[in-house]
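Summary for the steering committee. The consortium agreed at its last meeting that each partner would contribute one worked example illustrating the joint modelling workflow. Our contribution is presented below. We chose a case with several input lines so that the handling of multiple components could be demonstrated. No manual editing was applied between input and output; the record is shown as generated.
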Amino acid sequence: MSKDLVILAYSGGLDTSCILKWLIQKNYDVVCYMADIGQDEDFEKARQKAKLIGAKDVIIEDLRNDFVSNYMFPAIQMGLVYESRYYLGTSVARPCISVGIVNAAKKLGAKYISHGATGKGNDQVRFELSVYSLWPEGKVIAPWRQPEFFNRFQGRKDLIEFAKQENIPVSATPKAPWSTDENIMHISYESGVLEDPTAEPPSGIYKMTRDLNQAEDYPSTMDITFEKGLPVSVKIPSGQEKALIINDPLNLVRTLNKLGGQHGVGRIDIVENRFLGLKSRGLYETPAGTILHVAHLDLETYALDKEVLRLKKYLQEKMSDFVYNGFWFAPEARYTRKCLELSQESVSGTVTVQVFKGNVIVLARKSAKSLYNQELVSMDIAGGFSPEDSTGFININAVRLKEYARFAGGQEF
Amino acid sequence: MSKDLVILAYSGGLDTSCILKWLIQKNYDVVCYMADIGQDEDFEKARQKAKLIGAKDVIIEDLRNDFVSNYMFPAIQMGLVYESRYYLGTSVARPCISVGIVNAAKKLGAKYISHGATGKGNDQVRFELSVYSLWPEGKVIAPWRQPEFFNRFQGRKDLIEFAKQENIPVSATPKAPWSTDENIMHISYESGVLEDPTAEPPSGIYKMTRDLNQAEDYPSTMDITFEKGLPVSVKIPSGQEKALIINDPLNLVRTLNKLGGQHGVGRIDIVENRFLGLKSRGLYETPAGTILHVAHLDLETYALDKEVLRLKKYLQEKMSDFVYNGFWFAPEARYTRKCLELSQESVSGTVTVQVFKGNVIVLARKSAKSLYNQELVSMDIAGGFSPEDSTGFININAVRLKEYARFAGGQEF
Amino acid sequence: MSKDLVILAYSGGLDTSCILKWLIQKNYDVVCYMADIGQDEDFEKARQKAKLIGAKDVIIEDLRNDFVSNYMFPAIQMGLVYESRYYLGTSVARPCISVGIVNAAKKLGAKYISHGATGKGNDQVRFELSVYSLWPEGKVIAPWRQPEFFNRFQGRKDLIEFAKQENIPVSATPKAPWSTDENIMHISYESGVLEDPTAEPPSGIYKMTRDLNQAEDYPSTMDITFEKGLPVSVKIPSGQEKALIINDPLNLVRTLNKLGGQHGVGRIDIVENRFLGLKSRGLYETPAGTILHVAHLDLETYALDKEVLRLKKYLQEKMSDFVYNGFWFAPEARYTRKCLELSQESVSGTVTVQVFKGNVIVLARKSAKSLYNQELVSMDIAGGFSPEDSTGFININAVRLKEYARFAGGQEF
Amino acid sequence: MSKDLVILAYSGGLDTSCILKWLIQKNYDVVCYMADIGQDEDFEKARQKAKLIGAKDVIIEDLRNDFVSNYMFPAIQMGLVYESRYYLGTSVARPCISVGIVNAAKKLGAKYISHGATGKGNDQVRFELSVYSLWPEGKVIAPWRQPEFFNRFQGRKDLIEFAKQENIPVSATPKAPWSTDENIMHISYESGVLEDPTAEPPSGIYKMTRDLNQAEDYPSTMDITFEKGLPVSVKIPSGQEKALIINDPLNLVRTLNKLGGQHGVGRIDIVENRFLGLKSRGLYETPAGTILHVAHLDLETYALDKEVLRLKKYLQEKMSDFVYNGFWFAPEARYTRKCLELSQESVSGTVTVQVFKGNVIVLARKSAKSLYNQELVSMDIAGGFSPEDSTGFININAVRLKEYARFAGGQEF
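What follows is the complete predicted structure of the assembly.
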């Protein structure tokens, strides 16, 4: 009788290697799935490791272009920021990987998907809600939430012991005292020594960005062009005739990551509210994402009608929560995304940005679609604007206030 | 027969000096009112100038403590930011000055208040809505909106000619090709050469902050303490036994302005949406305000319940618009302010901040009132948290998504 | 030399007849424009009256189909309700008429549009903001806001005197001591004796609906079918083989108006907040509109995803204010309308409704697109739902609450 | 060794009687807790039944005054309505009962609370989130979510068999083919035959209200007085010298229930979205609650400032969801409630209401605190209002629209 097939989201690390073995021991066929979304990883080594442990097959899929074009850039277009600061680099990667693994599961006729996410975090939620949205009849095995597993493996020590016993190769390098998640958009750092919010992060923790005291001493400038809110090209440096022009999304992000990293751009150190109701402390570095977000915000405010901007911002706040909480494929997120895209019809133009010492400084912006009217706003030109109208405008706005003041009888002042 | 009394918001500059003379020529008694809210101004010289022109009296009132404690600090407590970037340094100054001038008008039995704000800007609105809220029976004379005045004085040249003719002293220094508004919280720059949003601002324009290439080469650290969301003390440098501790609000702001300025902190260059429906380009520098806002946001996210934070953020967005538009004393702003203050009951604690090269970097935060629970979040401690519960949580959240996926029949994927 | 042409929104009543004469006396050519949006009016008589007074021409345009299909039905689809009660029957008529009059003005090469709306009301705003949106270079003459006019005609008596003197026919019937606005969607009643909010409205004031004590003694039932949120057919009575089926929008509204009127459906008596900051008391009767709104709300809640419903409701509240305030053609309203339409993609189905004694009672609803799953919700069927999952769901939701309770130390309870 | 004590929320019905016995068989001491919140129940009979089954004790607590004053009236004050129609009669009862049972548990040193709510409904969530908020160290036993229980008792038949076998008295009356929840505020009906949303409810199902064809033939009028948004007295009939005046909250509700019931007021038949993501169909009758809600809405719109009203409405929508979902004691609900109470400071006054044939008709309203100004709004009085100001107001509002129209180049029209 044939065994049930599990597709395991495999990282090559200790946890998912032990899970792989454990699933095989529980009599499943296991195919390992690895998505390349730009993390620094030796995929071939991981493949061999999985094969050695007993994986029936290993799928390694390059999703970098998909991730940049269909998740990272839309996040910038929609202006997604969680709790005013976090650009959601991990949150937008989860649905991307989920599509890959669900497609593999459907193609191979698997019954289960499995992963190594823990029971207190956001990623289990993001991963599983995406899977269930894409594949409602699919089933998920989350070993870290099964008593049989988490009682047996109560700490890293137990995993290492199991690995040794089962001939699973264990990295000689000691694990960093925190955990990271990496993709082309960002690296996150959390847990371990970082759990104490009163302690400064250890020096040398960041990988994509330089410390400010080691940042470049001369600023870099660039022109970033957006069409309908999506980044379409970068010209470096700004205003030069023989500048470098990059249109390829993946290359664009890589270049801005490198440049932003040299200038120490895009670090945050925050305490955030997880979906499960816990507060947790996290560090993030998002060099290209930060540059693009700053430029997009500037262009958007410049191009959009004042009231449309406010509606858009409300929807953007809702969408940021949806995405953080794992609802990328939920009906409300699909709906909100469509509305946000509609808002960006006229967000086309170019923003000149200077990157320097951790700062992203907007120098200038232009757009054929902006409602900015220099003649109208100019102090020196009447420009179809009668100052007397302002008197009426103010007086009518004051009607309600005067009524209230009379009514309150001055007692509150 | 006695003349009607006008209280004129006087700056000592060309515009309000000409307005002063013009009002006198129109047979009003005029008392000039100057509020000291921290701007760089020779008040005595202005007093003599006003007297020379014919002011019946000149009132100079030091509102700096009032401004910091009752307008700037509440703005930080409430988290006020206009269109994601502007900390409202001018907007919160207007109601403060309005209280001063209305009190003077009531005390002196004046019938009118007059000002030199132009007909396209926000300040006329903020000023007059405040005045009408505080003094509903009061009347405002806004010469720049009266055809008799604006037709006569069509440009600066006309004003200078009038000044010469009427023996009003005219500054020998040529006027900067932009206009500024200054107080202890910030300086704004707009109009003139800045009206072109595609042009980088002229170098040397900023007064409170150094350019990044001239900023200090060593970071400064400090501990900023808040009680119920209001800044109460700053300790510089952080973690030193013999540190400088400042509790006096005015002194606190001055010190952070100086420090922030040395590190090039708090500049923005934006296009914003005015209340009247125009877009305008403005530069702002807000050193102390930026440091305090960054620290407050960090503490607030740390201390507040997740859902309270979201409600607070909605109200904060509304309040930012109310304040920008001049409705500080309107019923909706009074109400929203009370609600926002209620949200800050537990926002007490200390944030350690590093200021360096234009950046305000949060290093650590502590609060006796935070809902952060290190034990609960730790990967290594079960801490009253059953991983199995997460399974149920995810499955129930997926009920709706699976239904939708079945319903949509996969067509959208 | 040719005269400037004015298109006057003409009603045939005393006010606009006097305005017509006054404009002619001020040396304008005047073409009168009357839109038929279902009001009870003798258009031919009005045409002759205008001609007699001196109108260069009179345009009478039947906009009833346009009004029902492009304004009233979208208002139902979008769920527009002002301040929880008013279905915006007047507000949605103004932009419809404005399109007609602007088209006429453009076609005839007019320079001005004129109307008889007063200076305290909403209609002047709705009318003019629509005109300026559709025709930014157009100009508006609003006599009731011009001192020359309103000082001369200080009351109805002055108008009647002017009319007599200028041989303008004056109706023999005394004017009702309130004013009304009528179209196929509703009739509104306000001002005059209605201005006292503590006084019950005079009996016999309502024209479209019977008093409850004269309403039919037997209920009527009907099946109302919607496609993408828009009403497409009504079947009367419900469930009969040989029922009357109406698909034509105008006929549909007429039929529901008659039926609703017989059953006394759709009256409200409210105090509302005008855009100008005044509160005013109004009576409205909206028989067909009320039936359609009740049915639409039921279907929508049935068909839409829970979270999409909440987003839609937020946008609906914003849109209701936009429309009430006259911003139908503003960018924010165009944008919001597109978003609201997007939300209605799956709001298709049939609602069975009983109309009786002023009540609109939903009896049943069905939709091929509803997310309602009887099997899932049934107490008697497990249906892919594990009760144990609810435990996890509750426990995880409680994590935050327990933390708060521990933190608050019980002091608040 | 002493047994662990469980406090069981006991109803006297089949489910909780079987649960009582089951808990005793599982070696717990069980004290039954019954809250009297106005449901039609023979409490003494239930007490004897519980004793007979083996309850260690039975606590019957009269919470009717507490429920009306601290849950039902605040719900009216806050304007709570779920999904535009449901007045939350069950949702507000759960936290009230939870306080009672938690107090009992604490007093008696119990370790557990148990209840008979099922695993698909809202009540389990409301009940348990309240318990955990009030008593974070408490534990809940929910038999209907434990496989041991729900696998054993798969339907009503299994329960009856168990009851017979264990000598638990079983009612001779056959159970209605739906389930109800009853308190002084409302009765709800759901599940069973009601699960089919296309089927009209069985006739005779409603208990508190008459069918419209049996409703009284003469209207009743009353004056309802509110202070700070809370109902404080009812005078019946309105305007009579020798009217009945009721101040006692419980009596007030009872009287309005009776009167509303005679007039067939307060029924709804809806499909709603449960917190767990299911849609379910429910019928509710809320006679007094409906009358009070209609009156309160009228007074509130009359008394509140326009913009405060909008902020209040946003918070009211959020609060309605919090309460429906069981978060009455959560930090966000405590906070929102304080904000909503703040909004009601001036909602004091009297509304005259007619109740007739299912309708609640507002006839008049008065309030010493309303911002309504008859003089200001009157067409016949200039009243400190210059019509010319409206011109400026409209023109300034049009600035943005004209810009947009010019920009869009007419293409969208």
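The longest strand of chain A covers residues 29-36. Residues 387-408 of chain A form the longest helix (22 residues).
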